[in-house]
């Protein structure tokens, strides 16, 4: 299940995750990065209605705990956030868990800028409102 015999799941989701994907997460850094992406800013909902959600930091801590080494900073922003691979989604669906994105905040908007190097940079800003 995990490289760390002392890993203690703190929720039903973590029990299911460790059982279904723990060994896979430990197999490679790429797998661990993919799992971080599938945890950060995603809502996982069980068929019984139970939800699990992780911040960037909490997602990194969970990966480090399952792997039995490192800290949250080893995995923090290690991949694109809120992206769930088909493999992870299908595996967790087998345990009754499905991923979803947070609904957009109507008071925020994404601004996409192109830097001098030609790369796209995205920023999320609060809505601009005029005087009332």
What does this entry show, briefly?
The chain is α+β, with helices and mostly antiparallel strands. It has a domain at 12-101.
Description:
This protein has helices at residues 12-27, 29-39, 56-67, 86-93; strands at 42-46, 51-53, 97-101, 108-114, 120-126. The protein is globular and about 45 Å long. It is built from four helices and five strands, in the order ααββααβββ. The chain is of the alpha+beta class. The strands form two sheets. It has a three-stranded antiparallel beta sheet with strand order 2-1-3. Strands 4-5 form a two-stranded antiparallel sheet. It has a domain at 12-101.
Tags for this model:
132 residues; alpha+beta; 3-stranded antiparallel β-sheet; two-stranded antiparallel ribbon; 4 helices; 5 strands; globular; disordered C terminus
Helix content estimate:
25-40%
Arrangement of strands in the largest sheet: 2-1-3
The chain-level mean pLDDT equals: 82
**Main pleated-sheet profile:** 3 strands, antiparallel
Q: State which percent range the strand residues make up.
A: 15-25%
Q: Categorize the overall geometry.
A: globular
Count of runs of 4 or more consecutive helical residues: 4
Radius of gyration based on Cα positions: 17 Å
Q: What are the secondary-structure elements, in order, as H or E?
A: HHEEHHEEE
Parts with pLDDT < 50 across at least 5 consecutive residues: 127-132
First-last Cα distance: 57 Å
Would you tell me the structural class of the helices and strands? alpha+beta
The number of strands is 5
